[in-house]
Amino acid sequence: MHLLHVVGARPNFMKVAPVLRALQHRPGVRQTLLHTGQHYDANMSDIFFQQLGIPAPDVFLGVGSGSHAVQTAKIMMQFEEAILDRRPDWVLVYGDVNSTVAATLVCAKLRVQVAHVEAGLRSFDRDMPEELNRLVTDQLADLLLTPSHDGDQNLLREGIPASRIRCVGNVMIDTLVRLLPQARLPEAPLQDRFALVTLHRPSNVDDPEILRGVLETLVDLSDGCQMVFPVHPRTRKKIEELGVLFPNEERFLMLEPLGYLECLALQKHATAVVTDSGGIQEESTWLGVPCLTLRENTERPVTISAGTNQLIGRDMVKLRSALTEILAGHGKTGRKPPLWDGKAGERIADILLEPAQPMLRRAA
Ligand code: UD1
Q1: DSSP characters for 23-38?
Q2: Model pTM?
Q3: Domains in the chain and their CATH numbers?
């Protein structure tokens, strides 16, 4: 059986690693790794391949940045050629980035089977580009591998037959469980107590006044707790245009984007996490660290119902009071959701190799 995995952007890499590993010694399996090149900086891509032990991609499309339409179209054009050359039995796509939806659309038209890893998540917010990517990918994919049961319910509600849906657990947590012992803090002037901050969503960084409001609140709060802020490339460009005055590094430490092991160690040792990332909401829940999410909604509701996550939206008064509570030792506690156990990759491998699975295959 020939499986082709598609990755493109940073959050894909921690999801593909456990699936590649789970399948590498299974008899009769051949794997191809295709990187679209959506993320291309060394610290947004290469470092994850090294730290996660992912083999070099067999195919690299090198599409780079662009508007959503340009980026998606470029991926589709080049991916179509790659698929026609290779004709895999299954294509595996991950998460909700532009590379995910572009590859799925090409496969659906070429009648190549697609399995979507991390299917069924919904924020119910179509202003988020990722929500559109999730909706289209899940409608077109043949096999929907969900991280939690809320995902199954969302898919059933959208009319997807139960026979296509399998709840396998959270594959990104597999990578966390495997690599936590190797997590190491970055070499940087960290204080004993700090909050980890990450921001990159268009809804927070594209409007200068919203970004200014968030940054000025964090600068104020850095009086009581150091802010440690690895800055995503799109956010860095926006900050440079703003001219906000930041205090010294003891209070406000801005870093380049970090490797996986450094980011994990910072989360583990942080007093609080302030983020708009999807993956970090989940990782902080597993680690039991209080997380304040600067979004109005989340496609990962289990991090709120079971975990340490709290939605703050754009309410800066709420951010102040929630962070003050955490610093006073009254942060939200939680538990690990079911099937976040480090074995999701193995469950995916088992499902793909089930003898009944080829029945899903469409007519050529
Ligand atoms: C993408 C994903 C988002 C994910 C995020 C993680 C989509 C729609 N969005 O958003 O879901 O949470 O990745 O990082 O797919 N840039 C660089 N170097 C890089 C990559 C990007 O400088 O290696 C800059 C470019 O200016 C680019 C901008 O960042 O235009 C945005 O990159 P893009 O891949 O379009 O989206 P992200 O915001 O990274």
Answers
A1: HHTSTT-EEEEEE--S
A2: 0.96
A3: 2-169+340-363 (3.40.50.2000), 185-327 (3.40.50.2000)
